Amino acid sequence: MDGNGRWAKARGLPRTAGHYQGAETVRQVVEASIRNDITHLTLFGFSSENWKRPATEINDLMGLLRLYLRREIARLHDNGVRLSVIGERHRLAPDIVELIEGAERQTRDNSRLRLTIALSYGGRMDIVNAARQLAQRVAQGELRAEDIDEAMFAGNLSTADMPDPDLVIRTSGEMRISNFLLWQFAYTEMIFVDKHWPEFSAADFSAALAEYQGRNRRYGAAG
Questions:
Q1: 4-212 has which CATH code?
Q2: Annotation: binding site for Mg(2+)
Q3: Which residues bind substrate (predicted)?
Q4: What is the per-residue pLDDT for 211?
Q5: What is the mean pLDDT of residues 132-143?
Q6: Residue of 36, 37, 50, 60 marked catalytic
Q7: Is residue 109 annotated as a catalytic residue, yes or no?
Q8: In the predicted structure, residue 83 carries a pLDDT above the cut 70
Q9: What confidence category does residue 220 fall into, taking pLDDT thresholds of 50, 70 and 90?
Q10: Residue 223 binned pLDDT confidence (cut-offs 50, 70, 90)
Q11: Where are the domains of the chain?
């Protein structure tokens, strides 16, 4: 969800305004996902690298996150959405962690849409953490190194109970994946959109889905 700050700057607004408008886009995309019977939607909300941003902007983003968790969970719950969060929670403020855990408990039995938000998340760290867990099991004699395969490795990632993404959409014209779901993106289709995230609409989302449906996914085979 890229381009909140640039969208605001182009309009002479503070970056915070872009983040608030971006939150409205999140609501529209979640609703569009439900209408299109999508079962899993993962949003890259805050990367492990985003901690390098100015403290004032980080504080504004965390304030918006608090607001979202307080105001939107009832709406998500009523619409059958299950919320989950992946990433390094220990880097978040305790009250935010408490809000996340409460939202996950409240929505855990919902099955219409699995909405996952990546917060303080990095794909490389996700892989490192999985490797550490398996290495510990080998060191303790619970597992032989030669028994580790791709399925077992994937089962130790933060997305262990989720399917790999079929499609990734990145806004704002940036053509990279920026340390997001690196293992999981092995065969994910990619669509890059020139619009900034705050101006990305449900119609743009539908257009991306239509483009995806026209692609031939061969997974390395001849087709």
A1: 3.40.1180.10
A2: 2, 189
A3: 3-7, 15, 19, 47-49, 51, 53, 170, 176-178
A4: 97
A5: 98
A6: 50
A7: no
A8: yes
A9: confident
A10: low
A11: 4-212
